[in-house]
Amino acid sequence: AMRRLRLLTWDVKDTLLRMRQPVGKSYAAEARAHGVRVQPEALSRSFREVYGAQSRRFPNYGRGQGLSSQQWWVDVVKQTFRLSGVHEDGVLTLMAENLYRDFCSARNWEVLPGAGETLSQCCQRGFHMGVVSNFDKRLENILSQCNLRHHFEFVLTSEDAGFAKPDPRIFEKALRLGGVPPEQAAHVGDDYTRDYGAARAVGMHSFLLRAAGHSEEPEVPPEHVLPTLSHLLALIEK
């Protein structure tokens, strides 16, 4: 059945791209530039708490509640600093706007090992390719800056779609964009629920990128597991 695959869809964060350094380090460096000292570890902890609360209160960047994703993120950054003890409004606004802009560039993102080569090989083999990511609208630009955009016929973010993985509708929209039925498509991602399980639920094939030893999740057939991206083509062509 794998031989009939025509479309490959890709998750981005921690599948193709990763942050160059922990969030707290990026935030602390921005603060230092304004003469504000905050511990990176404290900022990382604050960020996780604030990001979680904001995601529950305003899912998918507040798209259904009248927020722009930029407002959503600026709010997250400001609250992260406040929770870490920084309260000066002028500086908070400046830092939040700078960080929103910096996370839109290759400054804060790097391509995972093997990603560029694997994407090139998949294109050479003639697969249609698209992105399906729980990301805001900066993703297109980030992929361009990291020199990956040209591999993809479409970039579908949860902000654009109005639905976030694991909602089946974002995968259904990707299948429409790719013009193939689900059994001729496979999704590649690193999250068991949002990537692997969600794609399978709409009838797509799926591959789970995960380092050895991540077995607290439900069993995944070994032929669906990618220890690294470089293993993908061998599995598809079996």
TrEMBL record:
CDD domains: HAD_dREG-2_like. It comes from the Eukaryota. One of its GO terms (cellular component) is nucleus. Pfam families: Hydrolase (PF00702). Signal peptide: none annotated. InterPro entries: HAD-like_hydrolase_domain, HAD-like_sf, HAD-SF_hydro_IA, HAD-SF_hydro_IA_REG-2-like, HAD-SF_hydro_IA_REG-2-like_cap, HAD_sf. PANTHER family: HALOACID DEHALOGENASE-LIKE HYDROLASE DOMAIN-CONTAINING PROTEIN 3 (PTHR46191:SF2), PTHR46191. NCBIfam families: DREG-2 (TIGR02252), HAD-SF-IA-v1 (TIGR01549), HAD-SF-IA-v3 (TIGR01509). Belongs to the HAD-like hydrolase superfamily. This is Haloacid dehalogenase-like hydrolase domain-containing protein 3. It comes from Corythaixoides concolor.
